[in-house]
Amino acid sequence: QKDGYDTYMLKEINEQPHVINETLRGRIFDHKVVMKELDDIDFAKFNKVYFVACGTAYHACLCGAQILERATKLPVMTQVASEFRYNDPIIDDQTLCIFVSQSGETADTLAALRLANSKGCTTIAIANVLGSTISRDAMYTLYTAAGPEIAVASTKAYTTQLVLLTLFAVYVAQHLHDNIDTEILDQLAKLPDYVEALIKDEPTFEKYAALLKDKHDCYFIGRSLDYASVLEGALKLKEVSYVHADAYIAGELKHGPIALIEPGTVVIAVATQPHVAAKTISNIQETIARGANVVLFTTDNEEVSNVENIYRLPDVNPLLQSVLVAIPLQLIAYHTAVIKGCDVDKPRNLAKSVTVE
Ligand code: F6R
User: Fold this and answer.
1) How far apart are CA 88 and CA 79, in angstroms?
2) Is 245:219 a contact under the CB 8 Å cutoff?
3) What are phi and psi of 179, to 5 degrees?
4) Ligand 1 site: residues with CB under 6 angstroms?
């Protein structure tokens, strides 16, 4: 069942080129996104959009929300489901609410969805499991095509959620605006090849993981979309390897977290967004000056000096970089867990589907 891989997590990481392709299948035609499931929604009636989910799916929402906001200029909010359901959100029949869940059975996400339904919102589920509760309770459902995810740590569900949320943003923009830039659609179609090439670089990411072998802590930094990516990178690392990992907005470093940096501290930085990459790279220099051991993920466009471990990601549309950088961050978490002898597929205290509050 593991197709020759040692673990389900590694198998599922390797399945990503295929399942991203499957998620894209039939969705792009004649430079337009096809989402027939949603064709009777009048997007012009919404004055705001909420994205709601838990854990990794919440991180996918943080990316999806930024992409949708930029594409449509609609105000978009993102909220963790366990907060949304209890915090009396200001929502009504002019609110579009999107709920993202791999399993479709997460108790808090389902409760948040029911609240939105009761307030008259239009609700869309983004699910992976056909016929799951979320798809029955939401007014509309879009499916990722990740296939069964067995490892507790989510990998392929996350990247397919990112792809579907990007398609969704372009789809809504098509409805609201006449002239939209569709260059991103050509690049989306090329993602499986880029992801495949990144997976082939596994030995490099294994080398980065070795830096964490004897460490108790690791810090991740990024700005804008890269912040969502580092939140997910830190979650993956802590859940499978039990290394304490925190993710910070790079601009927040000097407001507190930099006090934690000492000689040998590992800092994983992501700087792929052109409007803020140079800022993050300058924050990295501040950590290096305090002895940090930095691993930097950036693109060819950024000038970097003095950083020992730099990985240059392919130069795609910045809105798609979250999908690419997810691969090395998953592989760093995976190899750190392997080096430490952890049970990668079944981390302690965690269940695959959180059906209780
Ligand atoms: C982390 C992970 C969890 C889930 C979360 C939501 O790797 O898998 O954080 O993302 O429990 O689960 P779903 O998407 O099934 O609602």
Assistant:
1) 12
2) yes
3) -105, 100
4) 54-57, 101-103, 106, 109, 153-154, 235, 239, 353-354
Cα(234)–Cα(19) distance, integer angstroms: 23
* pTM score, whole prediction: 0.98
This model of the complex carries an ipTM of: 0.99
Residue pLDDT, tens place only, 125-176: 999 999 999 999 999 999 999 999 999 999 999 999 999 999 999 999 999 9
d(CA 319, CA 332): 22
Selected residue with higher pLDDT from 271 and 348: 271
Tokens of 86: 């209890």
Residue ID of nearest Cα to ligand 1 atom 16: 101
SS3 content of the chain, % helix, strand, coil (to 5): 50, 15, 35
Residue for token digits 């929402």?
A: 61
Task: Quickly count: other Cβ atoms within 10 Å of residue 216's Cβ.
Answer: 8
Contact 53, 99 (CB under 8 A): yes
**Residue type (1 letter), 195:** V
> pLDDT-based confidence at 220, cuts 50/70/90?
very high
Q: Residue 179 pLDDT more than 80? A: no
Handedness of CA 221, 226, 231, 233 (dihedral sign): negative
- Residue 79 has a pLDDT of 98
Neighbours of 341 (CB within 10 A): 8
Find, among 158, 295, 303, the residue nearest to 221 by Cα.
295
Cβ proximity of 89 and 50 under 8 Å:
yes
Taking the centre of ligand 1 as the mean of its atom positions, its distance from the CA of residue 159, in whole angstroms, is: 13
Closest CA to 84 of 57, 102, 63: 57
If you measure from the C-alpha of residue 56 to the centroid of ligand 1, how many angstroms do you get, rounded to a whole number? 5
Farthest CA pair distance, the chain = 58
Counting ligand 1 atoms within 8 A of each CB, the residue from 8, 9, 51, 54 with the most, and so the one to mutate, is 54
Is 238 one of the annotated active-site residues of the chain?
Answer: no
